[in-house]
Each structure stands twice: as C-alpha cells, then as structure tokens.
Amino acid sequence: MIAGAAVALSLAGQAPPPPRKFLAVDAHRHRVTITLIASYDDANGGFNFDGYSRFLLWTVPKGWTVRVVCRNRGPLRHSCAAVDNAGSTKPAFRGASTPQPRVGLEAGHTARFTFRASKKGVYRFACLVRGHEEARMWDVLKITRGGKPSVVDLQAK
Q: What's the helix, strand, coil split of the chain in %, to 5?
C-alpha cells in the first residue's frame, strides 16, 4: 500500500498509521524528532495527535535533544507542549512548546521547537488551547535514564 493510500484510509475512519512513522532517531547525535499532527483525523472528535489521543507513549533517554514538529490540520487552533502533568500550562523544559500555546496554531500551520530532555520523569505532550487537554488531546512522554527512543500505542498492548 502506498503512503497516500494509508493516510486516506486513516482519514476515512480506519486505524491511524503505526506510531513509529512519527518518530525519527539520530542515535549518533543523541537526537530525536517527534512529529505531532494535531487533528490528524476525526478520532476523538479531532482532538488527537497523529490519530491517537492519550494512548501514545513516547520514550526518550535523558540528555537527548528532542525536536518536535507540530502541524495543525485544523479546523480548530491547536498547540503542542511538553508539560509536567494534567492541567499544567507551563512547559516542563525550556523551550518545550509552540509559540503562544494557549492560543494555538491556525489550521494548516506548522511550528517547531527543540528542548533537551534534562530530567527523568513522566510528562505529557498536550494541546494547551483551553479545553483541548480535557478532551483527551495528549500523549505520554517518558524521559528515562538510558535505553533507546521509542513510541508505542498503549492500546495495542
């Protein structure tokens, strides 16, 4: 199946693509790129990243550089931020959010941010536009002592 057909099926209500499609790892440079596509499809009423809501677990080793590409498919404004926990509005790491995360990006816009995974713990990638996190528009981010970067669908386990 070609990539465009997979996306078309996902957008038509089928399962989203495998989460690993949204993760790129540069082990040599200790750098990971995570792509969060807000409102990827109509799953959870469009309140999702990459077609998933609250069921992706991103794991990154401490000390690695995390690059995030936040793309908003719309129609609503959405943002991306790494925060400490539910309801947090301040990024957990310096620079770990799109500009004006409470306002969000307009439909069709993309923003990028980079941060260092400087402390172990469990965090969230969340949309900070009012009401969106409460609508389950978040993923889990775990910073570990070691290991390899990964992403898994917690529902598939």
A: 15, 40, 50
